[in-house]
């Protein structure tokens, strides 16, 4: 493995790392950013992904050398001092480990869902931390896929990947448009589309989980600020609420999806024991 040592932040060979703040540009070039040793090591362990280039400090290079050998092909591996990362990338970055990675081909929603029993569908969730946490919840509780409306944050935005602990790279996902047509298509495919919402007439989560423990479920979740649009709410088969203490009317989106997926998984486990 050839490593290119650089000390000058203005080195022209580092040009590809100067646009990390422009997520749209990276996406247009078919790339995403993996940051931090934990995430980069997960990408290295997955043969589906190809690397464009890596920027590492000495400590990260030493820690990842075993994973890099025989894995990066013709990708450029740069080593530079940690203090130079901000000058190169344009943001304050202390982890000393960045990789530009080729995106996989986009999936159609039917490919992403496959034979999954439980999936998550997000509408208008623009917060990267929430999107990343949803993918971590999906992996933790066995949701088979995540579908996203066109206005959702990119799951492969670097902050979303980091929050997901790398699971945004593992849980299948697809963007769906025109929206909300996919909800009707999911219903036709056998899914019960359940809107997770405290508004309107809703059954409790436990009651829903008990009656749908052996059925396909698409859990529909809107943004924290505005919730689901009327168009999406009308297409949902029913609304599901998480009972809370008096005076509290909502939960953080990531917390709510985690509770809902845990309840569905627990109900499924009880069904299997019967």
Key words describing this protein structure:
single chain; 274 residues; alpha/beta; 60s Ribosomal Protein L30, Chain: A; Alpha/beta knot; 2 domains; 7-stranded parallel beta sheet; 5-stranded mixed beta sheet; 12 strands; 35% helix; 19% strand; elongated
Coarse shape: elongated
H/E order of the elements? EHEHEHEHEHEHEHEHEEHEHEH
Largest pleated sheet: 7 strands, parallel
How many E strands?
12
User: What's the rounded overall pLDDT mean?
Assistant: 93
Strand order in the sheet with the most strands: 8-7-6-11-9-12-10
CATH class of the largest domain: Alpha Beta
Q: What's the tally of helices?
A: 11
- The level of helicity is 25-40%
Return the CATH architecture of the largest domain: 3-Layer(aba) Sandwich
Radius of gyration: 21 Å
* Low-confidence runs: none
Per CATH, the superfamily of the largest domain is SPOUT methyltransferase, trefoil knot domain
Strand content bin: 15-25%
Structural class: alpha/beta
Distance between the termini: 55 Å
Give the oligomeric state of the chains in this entry, treating copies of one chain as homo and distinct chains as hetero: single chain
Total of domains = 2
Indicate the CATH topology of the largest domain.
Answer: Alpha/beta knot
């Amino acid at each position: 493995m050839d490593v290119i040592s650089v000390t000058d932040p203005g080195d022209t060979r580092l040009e590809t790392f100067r646009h990390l703040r422009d997520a749209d540009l990276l996406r247009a070039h078919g790339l995403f950013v993996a940051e931090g040793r934990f995430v980069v090591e997960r990408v290295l362990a997955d043969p589906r992904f190809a690397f464009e280039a890596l920027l590492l400090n000495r400590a990260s290079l030493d820690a990842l050398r075993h994973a890099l050998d025989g894995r990066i092909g013709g990708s450029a591996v740069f080593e530079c001092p940690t203090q130079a990362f901000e000058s190169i990338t344009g943001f304050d970055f202390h982890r000393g480990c960045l990789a530009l990675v080729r995106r996989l081909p986009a999936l159609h929603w039917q490919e992403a869902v496959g034979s999954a029993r439980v999936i998550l569908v997000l509408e208008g969730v623009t917060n990267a931390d929430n999107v990343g946490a949803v993918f971590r919840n999906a992996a933790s509780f066995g949701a088979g896929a995540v579908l996203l409306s066109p206005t959702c944050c990119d799951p492969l935005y670097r902050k979303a990947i980091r929050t997901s602990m790398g699971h945004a790279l593992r849980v299948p996902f697809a963007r769906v448009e025109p929206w909300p047509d996919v909800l009707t298509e999911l219903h036709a495919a056998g899914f019960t589309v359940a809107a997770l919402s405290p508004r309107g007439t809703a059954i409790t989560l436990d009651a829903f989980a008990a009656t749908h423990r052996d059925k396909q479920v698409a859990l529909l979740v809107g943004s924290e600020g505005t919730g689901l649009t009327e168009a999406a709410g009308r297409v949902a088969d029913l609304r599901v609420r998480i009972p809370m203490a008096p005076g509290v009317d909502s939960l953080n989106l990531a917390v709510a999806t985690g509770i809902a997926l845990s309840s569905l998984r627990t109900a499924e486990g009880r069904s299997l024991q019967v």
